């Protein structure tokens, strides 16, 4: 016999746990199902983001950033020391402790909000019933007036580079190396490849990134991509564009990678570890039983409308398993929006103001349109940029690399995009998000008082440069 709920959520990742908590806050009887197991063998809520994605990767990035500063930057501040060393196992243990803190935090929030939690694999059946095969082998059925599918995503595995968990790994394996590989190859120059490649490069690995596309970071503004490529090269990342991998073979304790370079010549590279970071796919395998009426597209994503409804009465889907960018914060907003729609409140996600961030050194962040997109769409625009090298706080921090670019409509002055490469870009980008969310103009940004000295002054001056009135640069 099924237990009845107002809302049943399949998945406790960023999208799912936000949906469950918001639904419970709104007085709806809520259950949430999650199958993940942590490194300690116990259930761990929070999805890929908290367990093996956003949070642990940022922990490693911060640890290695501190180490890199010790080796290369602290002497500028008059700080000297000898025999700097990184204890990789301690670094990873710190990462694991942070993960446990946050996954445990989700469990506490579920308890505080009286959310019924089921640990196991949930499958949607006809009639809004969810069958849960629990980790202890038992099966329970939950009936939901509404069911929210938040199954998340999985790493894409290449047929010629199967994960073995030791020599050929995905992001999960690359977060848990017990020592620094002397030679690391990465397939894919996207966010995961660049971030984890940076982690191990900072610790001394020789890192080669093989990217099949002919252009670097095509999704970012072209000027940002150009500077990023230059800075990554200076940092020692060897990024090969137009490199199409066709074969990998583990030989002894090495991996031989065969690829065709941009000139069409077959090449091989021998490394100690190979990270496959070619993207992620919706985790929809086994998700739907017979007769649910829910549809999957050719990419395995759950088909939904603009409000995340599947077209089946009471069935919704959110996060990585539906269309749109696979970003935790996109899932956050969809989860909250759907819970509020179920409760009869307005719920909406503005895809035009979702920020994108790459947490490398330097950081890269943007919101809205790039210059190349505006040109392709025939939108009249004007641009203003400002370098961090002219910002007092950035120079004082020894973080003078990078710039801010503001793009505004040539006729209305409405901000269409904000692009940043440099220190703290991940935080600064939200000035653009807020401005765009409130349909603000470049002049609005330019007339807002920014504290001095701060990094945010670069945004202020870039906005002033849109109308050629920047004070600290020639226009």
From TrEMBL:
The keyword Disulfide bond applies. It catalyses: N(6)-[(R)-dihydrolipoyl]-L-lysyl-[protein] + NAD(+) = N(6)-[(R)-lipoyl]-L-lysyl-[protein] + NADH + H(+). The active site is a redox-active disulfide bond. Residues 5-335 form the FAD/NAD(P)-binding domain. Residues 354-462 form the Pyridine nucleotide-disulphide oxidoreductase dimerisation domain. Its EC number is 1.8.1.4. GO terms for cellular component: cytoplasm. It comes from Stenotrophomonas ginsengisoli. It holds the Pfam family Pyr_redox_2. Keywords: Cytoplasm, Disulfide bond, FAD, Flavoprotein, NAD, Nucleotide-binding, Oxidoreductase, Redox-active center. GO terms for molecular function: dihydrolipoyl dehydrogenase (NADH) activity; flavin adenine dinucleotide binding. Transmembrane segments: none annotated. Binds 1 FAD per subunit. NAD(+) binds at residues 188-195, 211, 279. This is Dihydrolipoyl dehydrogenase. It comes from the Bacteria. Belongs to the class-I pyridine nucleotide-disulfide oxidoreductase family. The keyword Calcium does not apply. Its cofactor is FAD. FAD binds at residues 58, 122, 320, 326-329.
């Amino acid at each position: 016999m099924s237990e009845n709920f107002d809302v049943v959520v399949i998945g406790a990742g960023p999208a799912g746990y936000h949906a469950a908590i918001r639904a419970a806050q709104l007085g709806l009887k809520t259950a949430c199902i999650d199958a993940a197991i942590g490194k300690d063998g116990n259930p761990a809520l929070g999805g890929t983001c908290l367990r093996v994605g956003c949070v642990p990767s940022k922990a490693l990035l911060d640890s290695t950033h501190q180490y890199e500063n010790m080796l290369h930057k602290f002497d500028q501040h008059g700080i000297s020391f000898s025999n700097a060393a990184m204890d990789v196992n301690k670094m990873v243990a710190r990462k694991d402790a942070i993960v446990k803190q946050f996954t445990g935090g989700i469990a506490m929030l579920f308890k505080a909000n009286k959310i019924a939690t089921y640990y196991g694999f949930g499958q949607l059946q006809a009639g809004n019933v969810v069958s849960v095969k629990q980790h202890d082998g038992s099966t329970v059925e939950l009936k939901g007036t509404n069911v929210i599918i938040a199954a998340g995503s999985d790493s894409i595995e290449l047929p010629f580079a199967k994960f073995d968990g030791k020599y050929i790994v995905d992001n999960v394996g690359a977060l848990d190396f017990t020592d620094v590989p002397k030679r690391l190859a990465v397939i894919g120059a996207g966010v995961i490849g660049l971030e984890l490649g940076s982690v191990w490069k900072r610790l001394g690995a020789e890192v080669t990134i093989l990217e099949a596309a002919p252009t670097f970071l095509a999704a970012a503004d072209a000027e940002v991509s150009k500077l990023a490529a230059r800075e990554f090269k200076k940092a020692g990342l060897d990024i090969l564009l137009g490199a199409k991998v066709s074969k990998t073979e583990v030989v002894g304790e090495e991996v031989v990678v065969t690829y065709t370079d941009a000139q069409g010549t077959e090449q091989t590279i021998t490394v100690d570890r190979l990270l496959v970071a070619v993207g992620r796919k919706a985790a929809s395998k086994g998700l739907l039983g017979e007769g649910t009426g829910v549809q999957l597209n050719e990419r395995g994503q759950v088909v939904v409308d603009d409000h995340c409804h599947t077209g089946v009465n009471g069935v919704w889907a959110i996060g990585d398993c539906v269309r749109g960018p696979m970003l935790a914060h996109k899932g956050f907003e969809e989860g909250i929006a759907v819970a509020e729609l179920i409760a009869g409140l307005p719920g909406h996600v503005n895809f035009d103001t979702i920020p994108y961030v790459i947490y490398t050194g330097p950081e890269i962040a943007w919101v809205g349109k790039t210059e190349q997109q505006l040109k392709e769409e025939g939108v009249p625009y004007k641009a203003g940029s400002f370098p961090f090298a002219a910002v007092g706080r950035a120079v004082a921090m020894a973080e003078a690399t990078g710039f801010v670019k503001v793009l505004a409509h040539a006729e209305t002055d409405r901000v269409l995009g904000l692009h940043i490469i440099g220190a703290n870009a991940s935080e600064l980008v939200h000035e653009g998000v807020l401005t765009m969310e409130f349909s603000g103009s470049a002049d609005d940004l330019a007339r807002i008082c920014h504290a001095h000295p701060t990094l945010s002054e670069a945004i202020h001056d870039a906005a002033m440069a849109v109308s050629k009135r920047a004070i600290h640069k020639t226009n």
